Amino acid sequence: MSEGVHIEIKPTADGVWLSAAAGRARVSKVGMTVIRVDVEGHAYAEFAEVMLAPLDRLIANEGRVFLGIDGEGMASYDARFRYLWTEWIKRNRSHLDGVLLLFGSRAIESAAVVINAVTGTKEVQTCDSRELFETRLDDEILDARRR
Predict the structure, then answer these.
(1) Would 35 be classed as within a structural domain?
(2) Following DSSP, what letter does each residue of 65-93 receive, concatenated?
(3) Residue 68 domain-assigned?
(4) Residue 9 · residue 25 · CB < 8 Å
(5) CATH number, domain with residue 13
(6) pLDDT digit string (tens) for 85-108?
(7) Residue 25 in contact with residue 40, Cβ under 8 Å?
(8) Which DSSP state fits 95?
(9) How far apart are CA 31 and CA 24, in angstroms?
(10) Is 104 helix (H, G, I), strand (E, B) or coil?
(11) Count: domains in the chain
């Protein structure tokens, strides 16, 4: 982690909780191969460094992962935060069942556009409807149980 940004990290029963001065995030395993990421406020690069570890463990153990990212409350992000996620998606493309990003602003939606352009895929899908996001996440949880 870089100097100057104090990140509080608290392990939870199903993942990890992160907080800093201007933002917070939670990573939780909500299904067999389904991870939910909730981000509010500013997403620090240091958040990504911590967030990606549980995803790597899930891929090592299960071989697959679906990511539901609730970015509706995300106001901004460090360029390195997006970079680290982009590189992780590139490395793990063959293990992804999908990535769904709920966004509340066009600035956050643009992160998905950049990631898809850099990875050369349409791996990150976006939506701006809480109801559609939750329904899709529930469907992925049920599908993971059937696999």
Answers:
(1) yes
(2) EEEEEEEEEEEEE-HHHHHHHHHHHHHHG
(3) yes
(4) no
(5) 3.30.750.24
(6) 999 999 999 999 999 999 888 877
(7) yes
(8) G
(9) 22
(10) coil
(11) 1
- Please indicate, yes or no, if residue 3 is contained in any of the structural domains: no
* Residue-number span of the structural domain to which 126 is assigned: 8-146
Q: Which H or E run contains 29? A: strand 23-31
Q: Which residues of 67-76 are buried (b: 16+ CB within 10 A; e: fewer)?
A: bbbbbbebbe
Q: What DSSP line would sit under 5-16, residue for residue?
A: ---EEEEETTEE
The whole model's pTM is what?
0.88
Flag whether 1 is in a domain: no
Reference 67, options 104, 41, 42, 92; nearest CA is: 92
pLDDT band per the 50, 70, 90 thresholds, residue 57: very high
Q: How many other CB atoms are found less than 10 A from the CB of residue 16?
A: 17
Contacts of 36 (CB under 8 A, 6+ apart): 26, 27, 28, 29, 30, 67, 68, 69, 70, 137
Which one-letter amino acid corresponds to residue 144?
A: A
Q: How far apart are CA 107 and CA 127, in angstroms?
A: 13
- Span 113-122, pLDDT tens digits: 888 788 777 7
